[in-house]
Amino acid sequence: MQNKAAPSRHYGWTVCLTGAAVVFACLGLGRFSLGMLLPSMGASLSLDYGRMGLISTGNFTGYMLAVLLAGTITQSLGARRTIAAGLALVGLSMVLIGRADGFEPVLLLYFATGVGSGLANVPLMGLISHWFLRDTRGRAAGIMVSGNGVAIIFAGLFIPWVNQGSGGEGWRIGWLVLGLMAVAVAVLAGWLLRNHPRDKGLEPLGGAAPASASPTGPASAARTHQPERGSQRGTMVHLGIIYLLFGATSVVYATFIVTALVDVHHYGEDAAGRFWAVVGGLSVFSGPLFGWLSDRLGRRFGMIVVFSLFTVAYAFAALNGSPLFLYASVVIFGVVAWSIPTIMSAAVGDYMGPNRAVKAFGLITLFFGAGQIIGPVVAGYLADLSGDFNAAFWLCAALTACAVVLTALLRQPE
C-alpha cells in the first residue's frame, strides 16, 4: 500500500503527537498527579487514609465504566469528538475539585475525572489501528503512551513548587492549573485529531507487514479469510489475562516502592522521591523503544523481553542486599514502565483489525483493571503479615514470569 505523502510529513505523526498530549492530560494529569496532591488536600479537608483510598478507587471505577461504554459512544460520535469530550470532562472536574470543601464532592468529581479519562484514552488507542499499519503501529503507540512519563515529571516538579508558595491551600491551585491544562488539550485534540486517514485524503502510514509476523507458505499465502470469531475472542481473553498480570504487578510496584524505600530501607522522603522521578524520566522512552522493538521483531517477542525485565526488577526490589539492587530495580522498571500498554494497543489492531480495535482494547482493559484492583489489596495484606514488602515483590516476580510463559503461547496474528 502506497502512502500519498512521505512518512516524515504524514499527518499520522500529527495525530500521534496530539495523542501523546491526550495521554499526558487524561492519564498523566488526571490520574498520576493524585499522589502528589493528596497529602496537602487530605490535611486541608481532614481526610483519613481510608477516604483517600476511596477517592482513588472512585476514579478507577469511573474509568472502568467508561471502558464499557467507550466503544458504543465512539461509534455514535466518532473518536475525535469522544476524545475531546472526555478530556473536557477531565479538565472541568479537576477544576471543580479545586473548589470542593469535603470528601463527598471530591469523590463524585474524581469519579467523573475517571469517566473522562476512559472516554479519552480508549478511543485514542483505537485510532492507532486506523492511522498506522503493522510495521509502524507499535512505535506510534509508544510515542503516545510516553505522555504519561512527561506528566509524572511535570507533576513531581510543579506541585511541590506550588505547595511551597501557597501554604496549606496550594492543592487547590494545583487542581485548577492541571484542570485548565486538560481543557486546553481537549481543544487541541478537537482541532488536530482525525478519525481516519481518508479524512485527510491519505492512506495509513507504513509498509507491508514484516515477514516474521506474516503467514508463510503456499497455503497461508492463499488464505485471505479473517480468523473465526471464536478464535479472536479466545485470543483477546489470552491477551487480557497477560494484561491483568501486568496491571496487578505494576500497580503494586508503583504504589509501594517509595513506601518500601522509606519504611524498610530507611531512605529519606526526598531521596525516595528522586528515585521515583528517575522512573518518570526513564519511562518517557519506554513506550517508543519497545513499540519500535515490537514493530521489528513482533509483539510476542517484545512482550517476552519486557516481562522478563519486569521479573528482574521485582526480584531486585525484594532483595535486602546491596543498594545497587534497588538502583537497578528502579532503573529497569522505569525503562519498561509503559511498554506493555504500548504493545497491547498495537497487538489488538494486529489481531482484530482497525474497525474492531476500540471494543477489543476496551475488553482487555477490563482485565487490566481487575489486576489493578486486586494487586494492591493482596500486596498490602502480605506486607501486614510480614512487616515488609519483600513477599509482595517476590509474588510480582512470579506473576510476570508466568506472563512470559503465557506470552510465548500466543498465536501469531493472521
UniProtKB/TrEMBL annotation:
Domain Major facilitator superfamily (MFS) profile intervals: 16-414
State one molecular function term (GO).
Answer: transmembrane transporter activity
UniProt keyword Plastid present: no
Instruction: Alphabetically list the UniProt keywords.
Output: Membrane, Transmembrane, Transmembrane helix
Listed InterPro entries: MFS_4, MFS_dom, MFS_trans_sf
The record's Gene3D superfamilies line, in alphabetical order, gives: MFS general substrate transporter like domains
Q: Where is this region: Disordered?
A: 204-231
Taken from the record, one Pfam family name reads MFS_4
| Keyword Transmembrane helix part of the UniProt annotation | yes
Q: Where are the transmembrane segments?
A: 12-32, 52-70, 82-100, 106-128, 140-161, 173-193, 241-262, 274-294, 301-319, 325-348, 360-383, 389-410
Q: Which PANTHER family match?
A: PTHR23537, SUGAR TRANSPORTER
Protein's name according to its UniProt entry? Major facilitator superfamily MFS_1
Q: Which organism is it from?
A: Pseudodesulfovibrio mercurii
